[in-house]
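Q: For a teaching handout, I want to show students what a protein-ligand complex looks like in token form. Below are the inputs, and the small molecule is dioxothiomolybdenum(VI) ion. Please produce the holo structure.
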Amino acid sequence: MLKQIGIAQNRVDGPMKVTGEAAYAADRRPGGQLYALAVRSPVAAGTITRIETAAAKSVAGIVAIYTHANAPAALDWHADPAVMALSGEGLGRQALEAAEPEAPPPYLPMTGPDIVFAGQWIAVVVATSLEAAREASLLVKPIIEPHEASVEIDARNDRFLEPGFFFAADMQVQRGAWPDTAAKQQIVSETYRTPMQNHHPMEPSATVAVWDGDAVTVFDSTQGVMATREYVARSLKLPLDKVRVISAFVGGGFGGKNQTWPHQALAAHIARALGRPVRLQLTRADMAVASGHRSQTEQDVALQAASDGSLTALRHVSRVPTSLHGNFFEPSGLNSLMLYEAAALGVRHHVVRKAFATPTPFRAPGETPGSFAVESAVDELAHALAQNPLDLRQRYIPSRDHYHDRDWSSNNLLECYRRGAEAFGWPEGVIVPRARRDGHELIGVGMATTAYPAPALPAIVRLRLRVEGKLQVETSATDIGTGMYTILAQTVADELSLPVEAIEVRLGDSNFPHAPTAGRSKSTASLLPAAQHAARALLQRLAAAVREPLSELSNVALQDRLKAAGLAELEAEGSSTGLQVGQQVSFYSFGAHFIEVRVDEALGRVSVTRVVSALDCGRIVNPKTATSQIRGGIIFGIGMALMEDAAFHPTRARMINDNLADYAIPVNADIPEIDVIFVGEPDNRFNELGVRGLGEIGVPGTAAAIANAVFAATGQRVRNLPITPSAIV
Ligand code: MOS
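A: Here is the structure, written as tokens, with dioxothiomolybdenum(VI) ion included.
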């Protein structure tokens, strides 16, 4: 019987976080710690001819300055392709390999004189205080011969690459007979654009490296301690067991901390060279260039429909940039592969190299910008056909996953539409633009569909029953703010019939059992089955030790049995296998957003005033943390729709808003009540509990629902995000 799963349990780590007891990476203060800060390139392209460091070296407290001139020898710091393959620079390499056999060599800062993007780290200063490091970093003077740099996508003149597989999906797909355009068809064919976005988690990335003999402990802000351990160990040429990575608390990680980055290894290299602990802290400006971003996209979407509205063709062509040396690109067409019942389908991606820092995953990478384009186009089609957009979308629910040629494990999208529309009060019939006004404000409603895959990877969870104290749960997984501490406690509590308070969850330590990186919404489905198995294994071992069957015992009773068996503690592990190759069904989550906006036409100001989202994400383990995840995703979508835009200087190709004063994100005043409805049933073909991850599904569709609502309010179709006042007035 499930007593804890399904309960809106408060976060078990909440009190630690609000009292400051939770130690984040940069909170670690090992004795004798040195402070390292980077110096960034002021130009986007060029060659460093010299770096003047004399003035910086005269700052009191300065210990070392590293540049490409001394870092390779002094730090054993080299761009080893095998190591780079483990880093963010290597992500997506496979997808571009066939398209670009002459791929540029991997890039690592401070290994050569070439500048390949503005903000690139060209030096690192190390001092006895943060203030001294800061002062010295401002006095380092690079002499650079600048080159031309381009950060603009030019659809006609750029050289585009045709990538292969990404996230296990073929990025170039053509299926079905293309309809004769002369036939009686409704056609929407438009280009949509989304901006570059920075992750900017509340906790900026930082690494504190502490050596003890030939082993190093790395306190880091990462979504994956195991991946970070491997990267750091390979960079230092150490066996894995000589590197320990700890990331017990993460102040947000939206994909930027999903990859590994040079700073994580660099801190350990510097600490080794100087024989003292080193803290390498990224500033807010560093976060904009040295921990990834979502790239801008340009997407052509063409929809063709018969007069009854049935979709005869969907074409989705994306032009997206990657950096000059990296590989990740935004796979905008992912959901177009499977989300629409279209007779003919064409999905293509074209990738161009530009003088940017390398992009990374960013909360529902691909699905998010892709859904803005296609879900806007579906709304345009509904208006062209004089149909209600909800009615039209109901026709497009895919009967099965045609792309993977499998049935859905479950698909309750229709129920999401029904319950969301009912709770929102979605209008019937044709939506007439500019039909509702309240004083100086126009009011409009819009909707959009969201979908996100439900992956799972192998994971191990260890339990430790002790004669005294709480039952310990250990796994190397991280809780990036999602609630993993809490739902693991709930799962183990249910299996052992204990209260949540009897359980202590310990996460984010590479000495704990293996778990995947927290990303692509897979942690819940990877870890909870392992926790269940661990709890059952523990009961079996205890039963064997005391030679009696065990069930429905309190923690004290479990501890009494342990004592009776003459044991101080008892450990048990449980594992999950993740998804198996050759699975017969397709695991996805689905949902629909219903959004109301008010638009002040005189000021061009758009306010989101109501949001109802109905989602099918399997069994909900904790309605409180799950609702928070979806709300967070929707707030991401509101930021994308109305505010966020990493902007570049038109001639200097450098980001002009690499700070939180100029890079606008939503604040509380921008966010209305967000009503989240979970309609899903347990997905028991996925795992015994029927749970799926839901970290990202709130993001896709939100920006389209807002843009569609803006159209309903004003009659203006905005196809370029963000929808700033100048798009309205
Ligand atoms: Mo996920 S793109 O790591 O937020």
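A: Two things your students might notice: Residues 523-546 form the longest helix (24 residues). The mean pLDDT is 96.
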